[in-house]
């Protein structure tokens, strides 16, 4: 168990958006955000950023919405996303950010579960019907309105809702408090090595929670500058952007690093100190290749939708080969067995203490499921690991068969439920497997009287599953491996596919 004392308590009263944008009072003329196009750069100073957020908040209030109302976000990869997110939070509303890749039928389930009072929508993003929809032009018009006052209240109140996929086979709504942003302070030194002088270039989309936290809100909290490439920027253009815009820290998912290395372009960037990785484990081979190509270290982090990143390597505290890092100072983390923390060097389940300020309030409307994830005072992540005497943690894999595809965690049951209804299939099992260049992709193994053509599968799932949930491989097998209890052994499928031929 790692326990070096608790973090400083979150101030009260508190507002997440006010906390993130506090630098606007001290550094109004400083660049908060630069959106990097191929030929042009769109700049946002801190005073402009806060004015747009608080104007958006006023517009939402003018619609008749009040603090506590839920607002579903169906927005694309544009600056509209963080402005709307923080605008809702500023006046105590509860934003529900969602992936633009979701289909209309998937959003219908979300609307029924969360009962939002309004939907903020880019018309190009799929969404089920809702009686109170705010279009993009109207939303952008809110920015010029007079600034709303921040809604300051209990830091433990509901702040926002995000979605993850669980072993139940359906996406789960994760409820977080305003205080969750306060917990991210522990990342500044123990993952990012971040200061107000930094220029952080994040390769992700505006409407991805990894970008929203690491690429935008955390740099803004410290008064640093965020650099975000425009939608559609290819990986081989990123080295040039890093150098041209004096990025000091770069963040991306592992797949982006693999693509950049594959491009073979010169990777020199005089001001780049180090790079960050999260959402998917990076192979040691790729990390070594990146260091050799750029001379910059890679610092990895582990977290989940239910709790902000809480294990990481960092400048001055690199992880040994094979490890993902140490718990951040202020965190209380254990490796648990059935009877509590296991001895050093023994495998167990990664767990974080229930008092961690970054831990969720719970699964929305699912008290029993929330309670099932607790073991005494610990929240069980469901991931297996080993901790050594220096508190370095080596990740061993998931114990719940969750898949990781391009940084997204996906439930195999959700995908299997969709595929099982396809005529001609007898049975199906889905897992993630190692693809090219260490990337993991979703593979569907199925039994059927005869193999089906791949386009049949692709056509069938295209409007039933978000793109990142759709299998990339469809493999006809004579039978699916079963355990003694009749359950499909997905790990056996994965091991058989990945075994040397």
Query: What is the CATH first-level class name of the largest domain?
Result: Alpha Beta
Number of helices in the DSSP assignment: 16
- The CATH topology of the largest domain is Rossmann fold
CATH architecture of the largest domain: 3-Layer(aba) Sandwich
What's this, in brief?
With 501 residues, the chain is an alpha/beta fold.
Structure write-up:
- With about 500 residues, the chain is of the alpha/beta class.
- Strands 3-2-11-10-12-13-14-15-16 form a 9-stranded mixed sheet, with helices on both faces. Strands 1, 17, 18, 19, 21, 22 and 23 form a 7-stranded antiparallel sheet that branches. Strands 5-4-6-7 form a 4-stranded parallel sheet.
- The longest helix is centred in the N-terminal third of the chain and has 17 residues, at about 45-60.
- The two termini are about 40 Å apart.
List its salient traits:
501 residues; alpha/beta; Rossmann fold; Luciferase, domain 3; GMP Synthetase, Chain A, domain 3; nine-stranded mixed beta sheet; seven-stranded antiparallel beta sheet; 16 helices; 28 strands
Q: How are the SSEs ordered, and which strands pair?
A:
Elements: E1 2-3, H1 16-20, H2 23-26, E2 31-36, E3 41-45, H3 46-62, E4 70-74, H4 80-90, E5 94-97, H5 104-114, E6 118-121, E7 133-135, H6 136-141, E8 158-165, E9 171-177, H7 180-183, H8 185-192, E10 199-202, H9 209-222, E11 225-229, H10 238-244, E12 249-252, H11 254-263, E13 274-277, H12 284-294, E14 297-304, E15 307-312, E16 326-327, E17 332-337, E18 340-341, E19 348-353, E20 362-363, H13 367-372, E21 374-375, E22 378-387, E23 393-398, E24 403-405, E25 408-410, H14 412-419, E26 427-434, E27 440-447, H15 454-461, E28 473-476, H16 490-498
Parallel strand pairs: 2-11, 4-5, 4-6, 6-7, 10-11, 10-12, 12-13, 13-14, 27-28
Antiparallel strand pairs: 1-17, 2-3, 8-9, 9-20, 14-15, 15-16, 17-18, 17-19, 19-22, 21-22, 22-23, 24-25, 26-27
Helix pairs in contact: 3-4
